[in-house]
Amino acid sequence: MRVTDNRYSGELQKFDLAMRMIRHEARTGTIRACTGFTEDRVRKLVASYCERTGDAAVRRRRGKSPRRIDRFIGNSWRQAEATVLAALFVYCGATSLTDGDCRRAHLASPVDLGERLCQAFETYASLKQQPGLTFEWAWSLYHAMVERGELYFAWCDACRSPYVQDRYALDYRRCPGCEVLAPSN
Fold this sequence. Notes:
two-stranded antiparallel sheet, mainly alpha, single chain
């Protein structure tokens, strides 16, 4: 039995994704949703590959993933960060965009989705020294846009830039950049 055999490639892909998500401090439920691993297996991965190697940088959060959307639209700076991350979802192929609404991309498996979300998050994290959103918040943003439809892309009347907006809130049709630059009344 050789690990390099093609029949093990799917399992190795899941393992690599799980380790990648663990390094991003993803919760167990998020890792399970993308890899299909059990809670026990995720815990054993953390114990075997993170705790024994002394990787103190990996922290494990407990509980359910965050779901509140005010984190993404609470102020212009947060809205700008959410917009960048949501645009990276589209760019990395995790979502498709139709008239401002994000749809689930036609991917072969949940593993593919997990890899694309990791790619989008890693790109986002490389753009900022101190990213305001964690991987779990990225997971929540994805679901708020794709699954629950609470957020969507709107277009600014002033500069025609897209921005993430709450579907059920009053929209003044200004992107975060124009909102910050607008004179106070």
